[in-house]
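[09:14] KT: can someone run the structure on this one? pasting the chain below
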Amino acid sequence: MNFNDLFDVESTGNRIDILTCQGRPNITDKTVAWWQSHGWQVVLWDNTGYLPAVGRNNIIKSFKESDREILVMADDDITLYTHRYLTTEWLKKPIANGVYTLNSNHKMVS
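[09:31] RB: done, structure tokens below
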């Protein structure tokens, strides 16, 4: 089963906002390549020098000020492999308060 079969990429505008910071190009580059290989337009947010919550809040603020209907955001070390239990569980109910969010707290790091 393909990732796109489980999650309607088209409904998101094929956009994912990814929180990153300087000094992690090996991680960020692999993650960007993975999302792009599944048809996503990756938008990187540099959060260097700040706590992750600051960057996530900036992404949410930008989304709320836009005309987009759905926000999908993730940390720069997050990819989804459908054979993993936590990925399957997340896909059952990925949205909370109008936001799809993936971060290290979900323990889905590749």
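[09:33] KT: thanks! The CA atoms of residues 70 and 98 lie 7 Å apart.
[09:34] RB: yep, looked fine to me
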